[in-house]
Amino acid sequence: MKVAKFGGSSVASASQIQKVLNIANSDDDRKIIVVSAPGKRHPEDIKTTDLLLRLYEKSVAGLDYQNKKDEIINRYADIVHDLKMDTAILDEFSTILEERIEKYRAHFPRLKDALLSCGEDFNARLIAQYNNSQGVPTTYISPLDAGIIVTDTPQFAQILEESYGNIYKLRDIKGKIIVPGFFGYSKKGNIVTFPRGGSDITGAILARGVRAKLYENYSDVSGIYRVNPNLIKDAEIMDEVTYREMRELSYAGFSVFHDEALQPVQKERIPVVIKNTNRPQDPGTYIRYDREIRPDHLISGLSCDKGFTVINISKYLMNRQVGFTRKILTVLEDNDISFDHMPSGIDGISIIMRTHQIEGKENKVLNEIRKQCDVDELSIESDLAILMVVGLGMSQMIGTANKITEALAKANINLKMINQGASEISMMFGISVKDADNAVRATYEGCCCSANKIKSSVE
Ligand code: ASP
User: Fold this and answer.
1) Ligand 1 pocket: which of 5, 34, 47 to mutate (most atoms <8 Å of CB)?
2) How high does pLDDT run on average in the chain?
3) Known CDD domains for this protein (predicted)?
4) What CATH architecture is 2-291?
């Protein structure tokens, strides 16, 4: 059995939905179909989830929201019209929106989840009804009926373990099953959404629940690029990557697959394939537990993410002081700051965090560190970018770091810090934000492509 999830652009219009159903219906194993809300049809378009967000904002502000509601209904009306479906379904959608606004008027966070989840929910109902009308037995199953039980914190649903037993029962249903992505139900009966982009998470949960042999994730790209294709012309698509590599790449800014979606599939070692709805014949990128290490592709991918702040602390003889780091970490904890990296030397330590973690608290944190640790020097820089180079093969090959630093040196890029975790699956380089794009180009061209494959970068 396979679970196939289709992202927003794959279900944005009638013609896209027809492509989705051609894919879904062409394979009997493709039994469970998870759909997103209609996404953008063209670059200036607005995603249905964002239209729902506007409806939510108007209704909590007590303003007239009718035109916002109409915009949403019109998105589905276009699809219903083009698929030549009965328009009665649109009245149902309109009633559901009104009922939810009425029911949750006094519970703002609940209203947000109740409205935003409609994007996926309406699409799933619509697509199931259409597929049935085409003679393919198809059942719409809500997350409630599928048994997707989640925690009760609005917008941050986390799956509860007991869901998996419920989901397994979906195997007994005959025909195709269409489930809306992006939300579940808490034990109190509330609709709770996953973080934005969370339909990937629903797909992964269902794949684990029914013990699927494959989780197919369809979007509008033919796989995962090794590097941002906006920076490198003809960037390569990976044929396979491991869960652990993918986790590191997501951290560094790869957004093709939601990082929270890896956890359920990783647990049961269910392979995931990232495929293109518009080019289903392309092989896509497989995300698996393990992969063969190929000497020509020691580095799977690389990315440079901006928006980091580093606190640099120096203290003579720091290495001999017991509890020095604990004191610093206590200051961070007291200020509710989580950090990402902590490269250190004998007389100094740097703490790197996402800038939003410390924004507005900089002086307070520095003063507290000064007070607790009696430091010699203390500084903070907020123009840091982190270049992450990820590859399973790096642990087995001598000289990879050398290749990367050589490529960066040739591009005249100053390395502020370097860190390699014990897993040797990734290397992290702290650089200036102004060097970020050049660093990606230099590293990709110097280390990622075999000599005959070096492509020229976009100027
Ligand atoms: N529709 C939701 C969003 O735009 C969830 C998703 O598409 O995965 O974030």
Assistant:
1) 47
2) 93
3) AAK_AKiii-YclM-BS, ACT_AKiii-YclM-BS_1, ACT_AKiii-YclM-BS_2
4) 3-Layer(aba) Sandwich (3.40)
